[in-house]
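Tokenised fold entry reproduced for everyone:
>
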Amino acid sequence: MSIGPARAAQITRVVCVALAAALPCVAPLPAAAQPVLAGAQDGVPCPDAPIAVRGSDAEDRADLCSGAAAAVAFLADHGLDAPGRITVEIVSRMPAGYAPDAAGCFDTARKLVLLLDHAAFARFGRWMGRPIDRVMHRAIAAHEVAHAVSATHFLVRRPRVVAREYIAYVAMYATMDPALRAHALAVFPEVSWADDAPPDEAEYAADPMRFGARAWRHWLEPGHGARFLRAVVEGRVLDGDEP
């Protein structure tokens, strides 16, 4: 099963973290649309990462900066340095055009990360069978900032969704609170990824978190890690350009 050309184009435009087993990217955000900010318009710099945060309160910014700094450091350790500055807007709801269950998104055209504030995130109730908490909030932030960092390193013009999500999920799992990571992996105890049968976009769309567990276990296998990451951004694995 494959995703049609129109849907593939939409996924290329916006990549999101969804909380349910559903396609986490829908119609592209119109150019005139603006996110609904949860707080002040002025960007606040993160102390330990090249991130400018717009909106929300100090506690939400602390979540974002913690997850972002961890993702930036992890990727830098593996050869993917952050660009000059990444802008994140913490929002009380996602704008029209995004999936209703998206907790965070990276808009590749606008080079902008959107992250739900914690109160809005918590209203979903549960994620992976557990009550939503701030540890999860930081994990979502790490995932989306990893998208923003890795987007500047791909050597192919239109990297496939599975290539981009592989890096984002690996960064998220690597920087995740250990107890949350153990729980997430326990939700998918049977999941593995054979080198000769990588997942496709349909599998990712059906269950993004299952895809993430597969990616993380694959990353940990001998001979993968940083070497495989470099092959992904160079387009030598996971098929390079989208059709």
Summary: The radius of gyration is 16 Å.
